[in-house]
Amino acid sequence: MSKIEVHSLVGRGYSSNVFLVKAEDDFLIDAGLDISNEVIDTAEKSGLDVDRIILTHRHADHVGDAEVLSEELEAPLFAPEKEADALRGGDDRTIMGSNFGKKIPPLEVEDLEKNYSGFRIINTPGHTAGSICLYHPDEKILFSGDTVFSQGSVGRTDLPTGDREELKKSVKRLSELDVRSLYPGHMSPVENDGDHHIERALKHLRFL
């Protein structure tokens, strides 16, 4: 039985998926957009004491509720350096809040370290310049943000700071991992054969 407990909130509307994780520490992966009440309710019902909120990348559908969740859960925000810089500067061109009809204020975000709570932080540029995934090698769990989804889908590269060739390299890197459970930023999570879904994504990219 896995030592990691994951509560999945599948995004509705424009929101990303949000994951409440109980590991060595309790933490939140991504903040979603306009689902803060549901996230807070799930955290309370699950008895999780959220230590921090980790943002996989800068896009508004993943960070739109970051400020309110950070305040309500009393949890600081963390993101990879390139994404944190954009979020601290309130760079709407690349955060794209206006695309979702939202004004995302400059956020207080700390730089994310290379390891946290048993998870390795893997740099996976392509969807954005600083996108990351989180991988637990013992439990074979991957939180993949918008780098790769279930059913062989991948994140867009036609948005600001996106890069198709970098995405190919990132998915190739993920395909070398032993992944059982895949928790993507959109679409449904898969509990088994996660590496099969990643391999399908890699094959798809080879034709692009």
Description:
The protein is an alpha/beta fold and 208 residues long. The chain has one domain: Ribonuclease Z/Hydroxyacylglutathione hydrolase-like (Metallo-beta-lactamase, Chain A, 4-Layer Sandwich), CATH 3.60.15.10. Helix content is 29%, strand content 21%. The protein has helices at 36-46, 60-63, 66-73, 81-89, 92-95, 164-175, 194-206; strands at 5-9, 18-22, 26-29, 52-54, 77-79, 109-111, 115-116, 119-123, 132-136, 141-145, 181-184. Strands 1-2-3-4-5-6 form a 6-stranded mixed β-sheet. Strand 8 (119-123) and strand 9 form a beta hairpin. Helix 6 runs antiparallel to helix 7 (194-206). The chain is globular and about 40 Å long.
Keywords for this structure?
alpha/beta, 5-stranded mixed β-sheet, Metallo-beta-lactamase, Chain A, 29% helix, 6-stranded mixed β-sheet, 208 residues
Strand order of the largest sheet: 1-2-3-4-5-6
How much strand content do the residues show?
15-25%
Find the structural class using helix and strand composition: alpha/beta
Report the CATH C-level class: Alpha Beta
Supply Rg: 16 Å
* CATH architecture type: 4-Layer Sandwich
Name the poorly predicted regions: none
Order of helices and strands: EEEHEHHEHHEEEEEHEH
Question: How would you name the CATH homologous superfamily?
Answer: Ribonuclease Z/Hydroxyacylglutathione hydrolase-like
Quick one: biggest sheet? 6 strands, mixed
Mean pLDDT: 96
